[in-house]
């Protein structure tokens, strides 16, 4: 029986906290290595998971560049540090004296696919906040503007632009699903959304599956961090606008930001780190939230909110501003006969 060649993945870390690698280790499997191997994926090198170091790593990278080791996917975690003054010398690859940005450009030119792991690698992320003294950027985006380190016109050897598996950190399932689809030859241009994120998760909203949806429907809102109510109206939650499946594909099998009592800050989108307002507050004009649910006209929202609030059951109102269930649902017979 003829077997398919392994899908070779090299993972490099640039300017960031390493949180996406930490998240990757929480993949929903008892055997992470076997998960990749069963999908035909060979993790050739990862800075935290591989044994090779020093000259052994440089040999791996050189073999990728000269073509003796096929590079199917180049995964980059962390933003690309172009400073100072465009030299890239704020981040040199150890043992080479060469900027990481140079290595990334050269490896991207021979890679079958280039994958940005996390929002720092995708858009610049938190590393690019404020005055951005390190000149941090994403692989193919600088915040919400195409460009970044590789340029808007970049296409990998397989024909796709940089695949932005955005998130802060990114969900391990988003990474493994994307790599598996690439390895199986089942990922194409139609699988990318307008920001080049995999549609497998980006076609969903964090709002989908939120345990606070009953409060949202009745516009019964939380007023302080410990409240059970919907966090959209007062607490800064962007779950109705954020593209991710966090509440249906749970973290560690059981959690999400909103389930933990934290508002969604839309960490999969460019610029999430500097929203222009406090993370815990919802900006409003004339009492109406500026960030309305995706695809909902303002007039519809105002009418719906007014009607919903007038019809809110007493149970929902009381529970919304409590940190525990105060009034349980009434017990009623549901059968007709």
Describe this structure as you would to a colleague:
The protein is of the alpha/beta class. The chain folds into two domains: 7-200, 3-Layer(aba) Sandwich (Rossmann fold), CATH 3.40.50; 204-323, Cytochrome-c3 hydrogenase, C-terminal domain (Cytochrome-c3 Hydrogenase, Chain A, domain 2, Irregular). The chain contains ten helices and 13 strands. The longest helix is centred in the C-terminal third of the chain and has 13 residues, at 298-310.
Keyword list:
single chain, 337 residues, alpha/beta, Rossmann fold, Cytochrome-c3 Hydrogenase, Chain A, domain 2, 2 domains, five-stranded parallel beta sheet, two-stranded antiparallel sheet, 10 helices, 13 strands, 24% helix
Strands, total number:
13
Structure annotation, total helices = 10
How much helix is in the residues? 10-25%
Q: What is the name of the CATH class of the largest domain?
A: Alpha Beta
Query: Per CATH, which architecture of the largest domain?
Result: 3-Layer(aba) Sandwich
Low-confidence runs of at least 5 consecutive residues:
none
Q: CATH topology of the largest domain, anyone?
A: Rossmann fold
Largest sheet: 5 strands, parallel
Mean pLDDT across the residues is 93
Radius of gyration: 23 Å
Strand content: 5-15%
* SSE arrangement, N to C: EHHEHEEEEHEHEEEEHHHEEHH
CATH superfamily of the largest domain: NADH:ubiquinone oxidoreductase-like, 20kDa subunit
Query: Which structural class fits the helix and strand makeup?
Result: alpha/beta
């Amino acid at each position: 029986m003829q077997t398919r060649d392994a899908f070779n993945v090299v993972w490099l870390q640039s300017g960031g906290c390493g949180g996406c690698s930490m998240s990757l280790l929480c993949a929903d499997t008892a055997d992470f290595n076997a998960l990749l191997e069963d999908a035909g994926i060979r993790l050739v090198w990862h800075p935290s998971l591989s044994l090779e170091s020093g000259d052994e790593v440089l040999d791996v990278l050189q073999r990728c560049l000269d073509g003796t080791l096929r590079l199917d996917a180049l995964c980059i975690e962390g933003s690309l540090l172009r400073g100072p003054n465009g030299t890239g010398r704020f981040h040199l690859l150890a043992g080479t004296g060469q900027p990481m940005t140079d290595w990334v450009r050269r490896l991207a030119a021979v890679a079958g696919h280039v994958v940005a792991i996390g929002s720092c690698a995708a858009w610049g992320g938190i590393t690019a906040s404020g005055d951005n003294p390190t000149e941090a950027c994403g692989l193919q985006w600088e915040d919400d503007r195409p460009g970044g380190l590789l340029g808007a016109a970049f296409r990998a050897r397989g024909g796709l632009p940089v695949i932005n598996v955005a998130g802060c950190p990114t969900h391990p399932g988003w990474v493994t699903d994307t790599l598996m689809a690439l390895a199986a030859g089942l990922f194409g241009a139609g699988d990318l959304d307008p920001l080049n994120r995999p549609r497998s998760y980006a076609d969903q909203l964090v709002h989908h599956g939120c345990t606070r949806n009953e409060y949202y429907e009745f516009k019964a809102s939380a007023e302080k961090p410990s409240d059970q109510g919907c966090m959209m109206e007062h607490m800064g939650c962007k779950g109705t606008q954020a593209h991710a499946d966090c509440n249906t594909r749970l973290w560690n099998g059981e959690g999400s930001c909103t389930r933990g009592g934290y508002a969604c800050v839309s960490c999969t989108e460019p610029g999430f780190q500097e929203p222009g307002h406090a993370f815990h507050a919802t900006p409003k004009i004339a009492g109406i939230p500026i960030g309305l649910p995706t695809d909902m006209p303002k007039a519809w929202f105002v009418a719906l909110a007014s009607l919903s609030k007038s019809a809110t059951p007493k149970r929902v109102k009381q529970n919304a501003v409590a940190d525990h269930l105060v009034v349980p649902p009434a017990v009623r017979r549901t059968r007709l006969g």
